[in-house]
Write a structure and sequence with these properties.
This protein has 291 residues and is an alpha+beta fold. It has ten helices and seven strands. It folds into two domains: 206 residues, no CATH class; 42 residues, no CATH class. Strand 2 and strand 3 form a beta hairpin.
Length: 291
């Protein structure tokens, strides 16, 4: 059946033109916007994939950062696998090529090597020494502070030390980019090397699934957006099995005396089920306190 020419097609053409102009102003190509729309229709997860594992992660709000210290996860790098080398050197030996070792350390302390940096896609020459070692750093793929705010507050010390030294959660990477990342999750930071983003997010999902950490809604959406482009991306292996947790400290063990303390901790508004929540903060009974 034919369609009579009229104002409707002109309005449609005008809308398309406006979309193109807006995309140009934003520094995007209209094709990119169309591709984004395609990604919004999430593919069916493949069994055993990172996308399937993401669906099983709990989604909750971020808990307060209150009480976080690096020392909560142990005093630096330790030798959790009892092979005579600390974790930093283990990861350097794993991720560098052509590595050499400091004499007298039984091939333990890495002295030099070459890193095909996954975050930047560039090649970095590592040389141990003051002012040079920082070029290659060991990144906690799921940052320790992020873990603290998404479940690790309730762990015992042994579990936190195991987490901080688990090879599954560690990658040798470009030092400045690691510093740039800070404690960001997938919603706030992804590697500039787009070719590595699927593997990076899959590793974060694997770590969070292994240790029972949750994700925020924004983080989950960002992860799903990346994995939609690689729905069969597998979960990485090679990490240690998370040790069984001792009876954890209940989330409600975190106590705020009043809403002023909640706001000072950056936890407002606070939702029912989050650490520190109290019905006293929820005057209207909607499950959200200190609004």
């Amino acid at each position: 059946m034919g369609v009579r020419p009229g104002p409707r097609p002109r309005r449609l053409a005008g809308a398309v033109l406006a979309l193109g102009l807006l995309a140009g102003l934003a520094g995007c190509d209209p094709v990119d916007l169309a591709e984004t729309g395609d990604r919004a229709a999430a593919p069916e997860p493949v069994a055993g994939s990172a996308l399937a594992a993401l669906d099983a992660l709990e989604v909750k709000g971020r808990a307060p950062r209150t009480g976080y210290e690096r020392e909560n996860f142990g005093d630096g790098w330790v030798d959790t696998d009892r092979n005579g080398c600390d974790t930093r050197n283990d990861v350097l030996a794993r991720d560098l090529t052509g590595e050499t070792f400091r004499p007298g350390t039984r091939d333990c302390v890495v002295a030099t090597g070459t890193l095909a940096d996954p975050y930047s896609g560039s090649t970095i020459e590592f040389r141990r020494g003051e002012g040079t070692s920082e070029a290659v750093q060991i990144d906690h793929v799921v940052a320790l502070s992020d873990a603290w705010q998404k479940g690790a507050q309730g762990w015992d010390t042994d579990r936190r030390v195991a987490f901080a030294n688990d090879p599954l959660n560690l990658l040798a990477a470009d030092g400045p980019l690691n510093m740039q990342k800070g404690d960001g999750d997938a919603a706030t930071w992804l590697p500039p090397n787009t070719a590595f983003r699927c593997a990076y997010v899959a590793r974060q999902v694997a770590v969070k699934a292994t240790y029972g950490l949750w994700v925020t809604q924004a983080e989950r959406d960002a992860m799903a957006g990346v994995l939609a482009g690689c729905p069969d991306e597998p979960l990485p292996d090679g990490g240690a099995t998370a040790p069984a947790a001792a009876t954890p400290t209940a989330p409600d063990a975190l106590v705020y005396p009043d809403c002023a303390a909640v706001r000072a901790a950056g936890a407002a508004p606070i939702h029912r089920g989050e650490p520190g929540f109290s019905d006293a903060f929820d005057g209207d009974g909607d499950g959200v306190g200190c609004e």
